[in-house]
Each structure stands twice: as C-alpha cells, then as structure tokens.
Specification:
This protein is α/β, with parallel strands linked by helices and 368 residues long. The protein has helices at residues 3-12, 28-34, 49-52, 57-74, 87-95, 110-116, 119-131, 140-145, 195-205, 223-234, 250-256, 271-278, 309-320, 323-339, 343-358, and strands spanning 19-22, 38-41, 79-82, 100-104, 134-137, 180-185, 211-218, 241-245, 259-262, 283-285, 301-303. The strands form 3 sheets. It has a 6-stranded parallel β-sheet, with helices on both faces. The protein has a 3-stranded parallel β-sheet with strand order 3-4-5, with helices on both faces. Helix 4 (57-74) packs across helix 5 (87-95) and helix 12 (271-278) packs across helix 14 (323-339). The radius of gyration is 22 Å and the shape is globular.
C-alpha cells in the first residue's frame, strides 16, 4: 500500500493539508505533483542511509540537521514517517515537540534488524518506537515482531484496504490457448522468492504442459531477476514461464489468470494478495507475515512452506486436475475480499490516528 493513496485520500477529505518531504528524488514525486501536493526533496550525502541503513553518528547528526530545517520551514502539526528506515524523522519530530505517526511496512525479526543496521542505528530504531505518538504496522504478525519494543502501548495495527470499484468481477480476457494460468505479481527479487514457482513449474513440466506461469515484476539492475531469467532458460521453460517487466497494466494479468501464487519470504499485508482476492482468484501462498490475516486456509487459499517447490507443485497439480475446486476457491476469494477493510474504512482509521496525534502537539500549519 503506497503512502500516496493515504495522503491523497485524506487530502481529498480535507482531513489534512499535506507537504511531502523525501531525502531522495524519484518517480513517486510525480504522483504527488499530479495531485497538486507540494514535494520537498532534499538530497544530501546522508540520503542513501535512508535506503541502506548504514548510519554512523556523524551521518545521523547531519541528517537530523536537515530534518530540523525541514520542520522549521513547514511547521507541521504531525509528521507521518513511512517505512522503518525513516526512524531519524521520528526522532527529529519528537525532539521538536511534534507528534510522529510511524507507518511500518517491514516484517523484520531481531536477527534481520541486526543484519540491516549497525549497533548505533539499531539503538535509534528502538528509541523511535518509544518516541512515536503511534506506530502503525499493517498486520498483527508484523506487530508481534516488534512487541518487545512496544513499551508505551503505542502500536496500532491498520490493515491495508483497497477501493473495490476498480476490481469489480469481470469476464476473463480472451486467450490464445486454454492452459491454466498461474500468476505471481511483485518485484522479482530475493525476498519474494519467485524461484520456487519456477522450480515448481519445472517439476510439473516433466509430466504435463497444460499450464503457464506469469511472473510480473521484472526490473533491471536486480541480480536475482537475472538469476530467475537464467533459471527459466536452464530448465527449458521459455514456453511455460513468462517473465514480465513491471507494468501499469497489471490488472490485465489478474483478469487473465486462474490462480494466484505468493512465494514471498517477507511481507506485512500483501497488496498483491488483496488484489488477487478482489479478482476472485484461488491463492497458493507461503505463510508469510500478514497473509494468514488475509486468506482462509483450506477455503480460498492453500499454503506451502517457504522455498518448497515440490509442495507448491503438488498444490498446483491439485488445482490443475480439479476445475470445480478452482471455481469454489475463486468464489471464496472474492467473499474474503469483501470482509477486509475497503479503502474508505482504511482512511477512516488513519484519519482518526493522525488527527488524534495532532491534538497532542503544538499548533502549526501543515502535516508533513
């Protein structure tokens, strides 16, 4: 779930008057500009630390000075920090007397935090949990990972929600063949683990060719994507597995699909799984964080273990051989989607958290 959907939605409700600050430029700025929302990008030598997490005390102090200057300029009533790596902004806001709402998208274990951040930065991450007015993970699974840091009881889970209108059930798109289509959507990268689907397809391709797999999310410059491409070539799966670049037309792939597959090792509350349910697709998934709160095992979804290509192939075979089961699971997926928060209900919850936090801080002009 992108922050832009929350910001634009709340701005359109007149709940907030937002200004966007980013330490790095990128294509996301155009989304806000198109919506008429001011963007303040300040690239500094420390900006990359918000991505790689390799903070040293001198870098951190310099980033704090930049943040202080941004806060003095815009004088926000609330700072909304998005993603775990924006923890320096939580501290800067709090020390300036401004409440911070911190949205967490990452399901990081203690071990993962130790690998990602040096000790100095890890201590600042832990401090930010205590300083934030509210910490908002998107799933209870993710909240549980940080339970040891919830010393003030300030963690509130808000599930992601989608506007159902763009996902109204529709007839499948015309096909060039009648093979069953398995779909995976998401950046092809190590944490998504799409090699398991390629390996599962290789298992099944030894006995049948009545299926095809679309992996949507290839991006240049990612070694894992090159590995996936080589794996397809090495297994002779060019006519079975399609590696599709990132596209704005992803809904067409959902409409053409029969089954959705999530091979991920790291999620919080998967947007792709929500979209698959909205399109009424049976789901095969790992028990990655958040997904057990989205699906009904044995109802609209079957599970397989992380990296278990053989188990995934078995589940795929079950659905290939049982069209009636696929149809039942499809109907249950759309029903599951209707039980989740929709976009408007999600905005209600964010508005309540942000406006409550604003009342805790000094009077100022715009949320940042």
């Amino acid at each position: 779930m992108t922050l832009s959907e929350i910001v634009v939605g709340l701005r359109d409700r007149a709940a907030i008057a937002p200004v966007i600050f980013s330490p790095l430029g990128g294509p996301g700025a155009a989304v806000y500009a198109d919506a008429g929302i001011a963007v303040d990008v300040r690239e500094t030598p420390q900006s990359r630390r918000f991505v790689d997490g390799l903070w040293a005390p001198a870098d951190y102090a310099a980033a704090r000075r930049t943040a202080d200057a941004v806060l003095r300029r815009h004088r926000p009533e609330v700072v909304i920090a998005n993603t775990l790596t924006t923890f320096p902004l939580v501290e800067a806001a709090t020390r300036a007397g401004i409440p911070a709402v911190w949205i967490i998208h990452e399901s990081y274990s203690r071990e993962h935090l130790e690998r990602l951040f040096p000790p100095f930065a890890r201590k600042r991450v832990e401090l930010a949990f205590a300083l934030a007015a509210r910490v908002i993970p998107a799933s209870h699974d993710t909240a549980a990972l940080f339970a040891h840091l919830n010393t003030r009881g300030n963690v509130r889970v808000i599930h992601n929600g989608l506007d159902p209108a763009p996902f109204a059930p529709a007839a499948h798109l015309p096909r060039s063949d009648d093979r069953v289509r398995f779909l995976a959507v998401g950046t092809v990268c190590e944490r998504k683990g799409q090699h398991a689907l390629i390996d599962a397809a290789a298992h099944l391709a030894r006995e049948r060719r009545d299926f095809v797999c679309d992996l949507v999310g290839m991006r240049g410059g990612i070694p894992y994507a090159d590995y996936a491409r080589e794996l397809v070539r090495r297994r002779g799966l060019e006519r079975v597995v399609s590696l599709v670049p990132e596209t704005d037309a992803v809904k067409d792939y959902y409409r053409a699909a029969d089954v959705f597959v999530c091979t991920s090792h790291l999620e919080t509350f998967s947007r792709a799984v929500l979209e698959a349910e909205a399109f009424g697709l049976p789901i095969l998934s790992t028990p990655v964080h958040g997904v057990p709160e989205q699906v009904f095992w044995g109802g609209n979804a079957f599970r397989f273990d992380f990296g278990d290509a053989t188990g995934l192939a078995d589940r795929m075979r079950d659905l290939l051989e049982n069209p009636t089961l696929r149809a039942r699971m499809a109907a249950e997926s759309r029903a599951a989607f209707e039980l989740h928060l929709n976009h408007h209900e999600m905005l209600d919850r964010y508005a309540a958290v942000i406006l409550t936090a604003a009342r805790q801080g000094p009077r100022a002009r715009t949320p940042l």
